[in-house]
Amino acid sequence: MSSKQSVLSASGIVAGYTSRPSINGVSVELSKGAPALGITGASGVGKTTLANVLYGQLKPAAGRVTFDGAAVSKLRLGAKKRFQTTVRKVGQNGFFGLDGESTVRRVVEDDLKAARKAGRASGESVEQILDTMFLEPRFLDRRLRTLSGGERQRLTLALALSTRPEILILDEPTTALDPTLKDKVSARLRDLIAEREIGLLVFSHDLDLLARLCAQVHVLAEGTFVETGTPRDLLVSPQHPATRDIAEAYPEAVRALRAVQE
Q: pTM for the whole thing?
């Protein structure tokens, strides 16, 4: 794989956990330095399914996912480890599969070790990595099971950023955060994405969050993208019924955008 290209591409994806696919013929492409992309839709439409397919955690029934031209499902051990440090994914459930008795320090150190082996060491200290997502050094000796949902989410984001990824996939990244932290985290993410030229894909039902992070958003419904536009356009002038349903959940954001237009 060539680190210069850093293109994650999905073509004609059909996937789902039931006999009726929740994703039916979707194509999407991400690359380092490209404008941030969002995918929105109601709960249960297949956003997480598509995120898992892109990261190689779920094999599609049809279609192909490649990274720099190589099929993600066929990456050998060394290439797969490099892929998983170059392309990072943060899910909404935090540390799935990790021992709750592990300390924050141990988890961060293990992640940095894996990054070094894959040639993606950032040179940052454990404390600097935590500070990326507003976590103080006092968290280092905390066990994972003692962290709140918001603390776990911020730690997961900090770990993903620690390998200086070229592509970042976020699935509902701020659901566990209160409004103040959501504002701080989204602003920090926006700055880091721009500074490091990270290719960003955000899956979220929250159009307000997508407006903060993304240049363009696809609306997922009935297995496919039914509408595409800027976050502002989707909030203020939604065309598809699925988009209107989502926009109606954020009346304050809509009013603020309309006020700016006037």
A: 0.92
